[in-house]
From TrEMBL:
It comes from the Bacteria. It comes from Streptomyces violaceolatus. This is Uncharacterized protein.
Length: 108
């Protein structure tokens, strides 16, 4: 007898992935990286207070910084992160909101 498969519950984890252009082609300078780290701390506290998800780290390289955040609702998570993301001076910058198989780009 086959085990029945439960229908998709729709509880896929969503993501907010922020991309910031840094100076040069490498990892950015020390001050740029420090600003990203400070912003991550602010966003970690904000997501914890709001209960909308978590910051899951960053990547630096190729003249870019990428910050990853995950939670059950990308829109609610972005709403909490948006003020801090927009406060960072690095441009061009954009965010990808992933909702299961759907993705939206928001320019900062």
């Amino acid at each position: 007898m086959d085990t029945p498969i439960a229908p998709d519950s729709g509880d896929e984890e969503h993501a907010v992935i922020a991309h910031f252009r840094l100076g040069g082609d490498g990892f950015g300078d020390v001050d740029q990286r420090e600003r990203i780290f400070e912003a991550e701390e602010v966003m970690e506290a904000a997501t914890a207070r709001a209960g909308v998800g978590e910051i899951d780290g960053n990547e630096f390289g190729g003249g870019e910084a990428v910050v990853y955040a995950y939670g059950p609702d990308a829109d609610a998570l972005f709403k909490v992160l948006e003020p801090t993301l927009r406060s960072l001076p690095f441009r061009p910058a954009h965010v990808r909101l992933r909702r299961g198989g759907n993705e939206t780009r928001v320019d900062l």
